[in-house]
């Protein structure tokens, strides 16, 4: 399946890419705790180890260096963490054979329901069908449950300030429909030139297709709340401003009051950026607290 083309035209001197969940919107907690985890326990039959499964999912998706990654690699990491826990094994939980899922993730550049659905119809693999059922249940739950979650304070003001000088896009692994719904619900979609979700490829691909090689490095910035956002920034040699998990309001206040001026003024790179990255790195451990 061909990745949908990303329409983008260089118009301004500067470029900013924004992640969405956990960065623009305080939606990570509600989506994962109220939508992803219930679907995980239901569709993967984890009722007997529900507390442990919840802990594994929350660590991977909210509190670790895997925060913000695509849902399918995150699912693999969650299931592997759960299978490795002695407490889960003591309750009769056995590791699942998820090699077919891992193989698809390694081979597919467009990790989304559409490509997975096509593969399921071709292969009839029960594991992949179970994964698709889970992912579709997540989407249905998000559409039903997640609304009325406004942008963080100073996000709207930041977008309004930057629109005169910056081309801006959304860079996310959230499904496209959900992104369009959330940005338009709060009237901030007009500030960005395009919205890129998981159907349009990885975050690296979003940036490569839009700002890659088109702006000076010092004029290109990615804003996000996870290491994957920083990785995407580095793929195009862009600067990176982290929205620190647990300190989102303070992070936006910092960007609005000083970070944006440093970016536009050309004195963002160096000690200032490195101190910000070090703070995010300290906030997101690699090892789970029970390991």
Which key features would you list for this structure?
291 residues; alpha/beta; Rossmann fold; 2 domains; five-stranded parallel beta sheet; 5 strands; globular
Q: Can you walk through the features of this model?
A:
This protein is an alpha/beta fold. It is built from 13 helices and 5 strands. Strands 3-2-1-4-5 form a 5-stranded parallel sheet, sandwiched between helices. Strand 4 (220-224), helix 11 and strand 5 form a beta-alpha-beta unit. Helix 10 (203-210) runs parallel beside helix 11 (227-235). The mean pLDDT is 94.
Summed up, what is this model?
The protein has 291 residues and is α/β, with parallel strands linked by helices. It folds into two domains: 14-26 and 151-283, 3-Layer(aba) Sandwich (Rossmann fold), CATH 3.40.50; 28-145.
State the fourth-level CATH superfamily of the largest domain.
HAD superfamily/HAD-like
Query: In CATH terms, what is the architecture of the largest domain?
Result: 3-Layer(aba) Sandwich
What portion of residues is helical? Answer: 40-55%
Outline the biggest β-sheet.
5 strands, parallel
Mean pLDDT: 94
SSE run: EHHHHHHHHEHEHEHEHH
CATH topology of the largest domain: Rossmann fold
Shape: globular
- Specify Rg, calculated over alpha carbons: 19 Å
Outline the fold blueprint.
Layout: E1 14-18, H1 28-43, H2 50-62, H3 71-83, H4 86-90, H5 99-107, H6 113-123, H7 126-145, H8 155-162, E2 166-171, H9 176-185, E3 194-196, H10 203-210, E4 220-224, H11 227-235, E5 239-242, H12 248-265, H13 271-283
Parallel strand pairs: 1-2, 1-4, 2-3, 4-5
Helix pairs in contact: 1-2, 1-7, 2-3, 6-7, 8-12, 10-11
